[in-house]
Amino acid sequence: MADTPRDTTRGAGTVARILVVGGGYVGLYTALWLQRKLRAGEAAITVVSPDPYMTYQPFLSEAAAGNISPRHVVVPLRRVLDACTVVVGEATAVSHAERTVTVRTAASMEDGTGTFGMPYDELVLAPGSVARTLPVPGLAEHGLGFRTVEEAIGLRNHVIEQLDIASSTRDPDVLEAALTFVVVGGGYAGVEALAELQDMAAYTTRYYHNLKAEDLRWVLVEPEARILPEVGEEMGDYAVRELRRRNVDVRLETRLVSCEGRVAHLSDGTVLPTRTLVWTAGVRPNPLVGATDLPRDAEGRLVCTAQLRVAGTEHAWAAGDAAAVPDLAAAEEGALCVPDAQHAVRQAKTLAANITASLHGQPLGEYRHAHAGSVASLGLHEGVAYVHGRRLKGYPAWLLHRVYHLSRVPTFNRKARVLAEWTLSGLFKREIVSLGSLEHPRAEFESAAGREPPGGPGRR
């Protein structure tokens, strides 16, 4: 698609309305670069996001293990995007033909208006992705996700609560289910969550008079023949060996068939009574993409050019997990950029530069980035990495994992706080407190008022 200058129909001196849908990596960084590149009064930048913060997902496993405070895993949009308007709400549909995004906010639901339209001149679609679930019986009722900071902290509380249950029961069936933890998905999220939580739980057992770390059973279920494919076969095999050395039951080429009644049935015939089933088996584009009049590929992603324009359109841009962006640095013709943070952050910079160039009537650039590699944590002082063709494992890989992500977390404020917490966690003992009541903060008051809490006494 040929480069085209900006739409001059707005007239000279008219303020361009730039609407960014999504407050994740792409949304935050695109808006951040735009507010730096554009002159004051040149454009009005609005960011629509379901949450008033961006979650730095690589740190979710550390937040779940208690190594980092939850508030340091998120970046407040309003503080960083001080020259933008931030609207906390959910975009439900896009009509590019009418240059309008339909939005629902808490206020619009409260006052009865329901949804309203937000007009724009330039649209950036960066809604990200959601968990890719399958129609597994019992999954919706008993599965736990691991994509948000709320889910990470909820999972930490849940795991510690299972130790409380196991310590106080005499029922062997309840004991077995409480001490069996099943994680489905051998990608970054699943492996790092399992490794960090296993470390945390094993440490926590020393404070229970009748539990030992060996009593806990951790099971990793992966339908493919290897885990962590991003770090290469050799490092993936090492990760399997390391997890098995730590008594993690790694089941490759195995699927979850059912988890009804809190019993996990695997495709190899294994039956696992469990009160903890964590689902991290991939992602899919945000459903918003399907509610647009823009072109999509077979995977449901927005079809984009290398300039990060939505193909066949003007004034619509996209990047990140919900966009199919050509990978010009790949050896294979027709390859697409993998949906990860490494590409998303860099795409955002190119995207902001191209929007700025379009508004100024200048040529657009193409996104090109050779993937530097991948790093993954396997718990405290253990990791694997494949960076620029070099393979690392053990402590060096774990250290590289921390250094890399510390350098990538937005804002100096967050970098300093995370580094301080890592330093303190190395000097003092872990916190082993479960604050599960945070999930139902009104439960005690409702009970005092004579009303049973949501879900009853055994709500967790």
TrEMBL record:
Keywords: FAD, Flavoprotein, Membrane, NAD, Oxidoreductase, Transmembrane, Transmembrane helix. GO terms for molecular function: NADH dehydrogenase activity. Residues 17-330 form the FAD/NAD(P)-binding domain. Pfam families: Pyr_redox_2 (PF07992). SUPFAM superfamilies: FAD/NAD(P)-binding domain. The chain crosses the membrane at residues 15-34. InterPro entries: FAD/NAD-bd_sf, FAD/NAD-binding_dom, NDH-2. Belongs to the NADH dehydrogenase family. This is FAD-dependent oxidoreductase. It comes from Streptomyces montanisoli.
